[in-house]
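Okay, is this right?
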Amino acid sequence: MSSSMDQSNLTSTVIHPTAIISNAATIGAGVSIGAYCVVGDNAVLGDGVKLMSHVVIDGHTSIGAGTQIYPFAVLGCAPQHTRYAGEASTLEIGENCIIREHVTMHPGTAIDNMRTIIGNNGLFFAGAHVAHDCIVGDNVIFANNASLGGHAKIGDSVMLGGYSAVQQHCRVGSHCMLGAHSLVDSDVVPFSIAVGNRARLSGINVIGLARRGFSDESVSALRAAFLMLFNDADIFATRVETTRAHFADVAEVQDMIAFIDDAGRNGVCQAAKR
């Protein structure tokens, strides 16, 4: 336990006698650490964090307040990258996340920004994986064995179906849903659904948006914009400019266009042919 812990922390924190906790680790108030957990020198556990049992927290890893971590999760071990040379990169996990059995998350590398960042209120089902240098937003759900390659960026309120995978350097925009077993190899625009072995867009995430309080007008505008962007016969650049102008007053559509403007090396995921 950290030598900086005050007496109130000591009385409110519960550590199983079989757990191995570095004296250099920083442990917040009200933390619970179960049997056979291992917490390394540079770990920081926020207030109320709960490690069930057999959890490994390694490297320069910080866990936000209220996060619960289930057995056999391994967080902060060296990234799976041939160019990682032991640099003191970080894994930063937000508050009130639920990280289920066998989840793995890796810190960043010097070839990117040295950080892997996980937002607040994430739910990571058993076997999910977040690779080095990823950025994951708030309120995400990763179903069983959903995986991110290195440098992926996932927006807020994204749902990844079971066994889905996002290739290195790809982005998935906010409020998207990926179908089970889908492989993402290009950027998925916000508010959409992508499905398939090589993922293709199937439409707007209407049900998800309704559940999150988006107005009927906004959803209707997004559906119309989607048709204009992905089902028209013009070249894609022309469709983008037409949609930008036509929906100039719709913030959600402009967010989608801005996402397309920032597309990187993998391009933008297109709609499935009907």
In short: Residues 210-261 form one domain. The CA atoms of residues 99 and 193 lie 24 Å apart.
